[in-house]
């Protein structure tokens, strides 16, 4: 069975601090895909990143970075020098190759305080 | 740009009413999905469709049905709405043969059943 766990329900940090959102997944598939989505107060889920199971390279995009470690089944997301606009709910997700069915974690609500 | 449009942003319906939630995508995507989002439960898959007139049950299909008569349109139907179906509903789509495709979401429909 597939499962995604985001243990942090809610996090609050002061603006300009760095913050890491944790994501741990479970799957028996050898080929799978991991995603992060951002959901601002408006409600729409915004795609941030997709990573396949064969690509363990970390990725950096501006203030965002992602650390994928198959050994610990984790795909953590770090925001550097956080800003108020980063306040949102962030979802980690897992899909399997054979049907694209995506399983989401329960989300982490991030508050960036001015 | 990818565009998934949900016809109604906010709806209030009475218990027992038949409710239609409409979703249209303009990217020629084969795959379409309906999710439900509830506090503390994250996103849960209701139904998905890989092609016109094809549908498969997700994790929580009870009380719902779907219709896909045209490739770009995927409708979620609540045959007899109940108060426990008060929720946010998210439509999504993705491209082609399952291979870990990124799915793109609409803005969501907030349904209240009274």
Please render the helix and strand layout as text.
The complex is a heterodimer of chains A (114) and B (114).
Chain A: E1 3-5, E2 10-14, E3 19-21, E4 24-26, E5 32-39, E6 46-52, E7 59-61, E8 64-69, E9 74-79, E10 88-96, E11 102-104, E12 108-113
Parallel strand pairs in A: 2-12
Antiparallel strand pairs in A: 1-4, 3-9, 5-6, 5-10, 7-8, 8-9, 10-11, 10-12
Chain B: E1 4-6, E2 10-13, E3 19-21, E4 23-25, E5 31-38, E6 42-49, E7 56-57, E8 65-70, E9 73-78, E10 87-94, E11 104-105, E12 109-113
Parallel strand pairs in B: 2-12
Antiparallel strand pairs in B: 1-4, 3-9, 5-6, 5-10, 6-7, 8-9, 10-11, 10-12
* Distance between the ends of chain A: 41 Å
Q: Roughly what is the average pLDDT of chain B, rounded to an integer?
A: 92
Helical segment tally of chain A?
Answer: 0
Distance between the termini of chain B: 37 Å
User: Sheet bearing the most strands of chain A, described?
Assistant: 6 strands, mixed
Order of helices and strands of chain A: EEEEEEEEEEEE
Rg from Cα of chain A = 14 Å
Quick structural summary:
The complex is a heterodimer of chains A (114) and B (114). Chain A is an all-beta fold and 114 residues long. Chain A is 0% helix and 54% strand.
List the main descriptive attributes of the protein structure presented here.
heterodimer; A: 114 residues; mainly beta; six-stranded mixed sheet; four-stranded antiparallel sheet; B: 114 residues; seven-stranded mixed sheet; three-stranded antiparallel sheet; 0% helix
Q: What can you tell me about this protein's structure?
A:
The complex is a heterodimer of chains A (114) and B (114). With 114 residues, chain A is mainly β. Chain A has strands at residues 3-5, 10-14, 19-21, 24-26, 32-39, 46-52, 59-61, 64-69, 74-79, 88-96, 102-104, 108-113. Chain A has no helices and 12 strands. The termini of chain A are far apart. The mean pLDDT of chain A is 92. In chain B, 37% of the residues are buried. The mean pLDDT of chain B is 92. The interface between A and B is medium-sized, with 27 and 27 residues.
């Amino acid at each position: 069975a597939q499962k995604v766990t985001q243990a942090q329900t809610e996090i609050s940090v002061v603006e300009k601090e760095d913050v890491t959102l944790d994501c741990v997944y479970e799957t028996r598939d050898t080929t799978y895909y991991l995603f992060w989505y951002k959901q601002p107060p408006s409600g729409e889920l915004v795609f941030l990143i997709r990573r396949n199971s064969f690509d363990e390279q970390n990725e950096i995009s501006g203030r965002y970075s992602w650390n994928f470690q198959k050994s610990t089944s984790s795909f953590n997301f770090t925001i550097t020098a956080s800003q108020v606009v980063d306040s949102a709910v962030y979802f980690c997700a897992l899909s399997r190759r054979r049907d694209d069915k995506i399983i989401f974690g329960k989300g982490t609500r991030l508050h960036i305080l001015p | 740009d990818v565009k998934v449009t949900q016809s109604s942003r906010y709806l209030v319906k009475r218990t027992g009413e038949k409710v239609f939630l409409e979703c249209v995508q303009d990217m020629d995507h084969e795959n379409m999905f309906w999710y439900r989002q509830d506090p503390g439960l994250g996103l849960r898959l209701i139904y998905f469709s890989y092609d016109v007139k094809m549908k498969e049950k997700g994790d929580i299909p009870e009380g719902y049905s779907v219709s896909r008569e045209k490739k770009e349109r995927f409708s979620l139907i609540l045959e007899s709405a109940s108060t426990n179906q008060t929720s946010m509903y998210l439509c999504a789509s993705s491209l082609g043969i399952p291979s870990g495709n990124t799915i793109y979401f609409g803005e969501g429909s907030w349904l209240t059943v009274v």
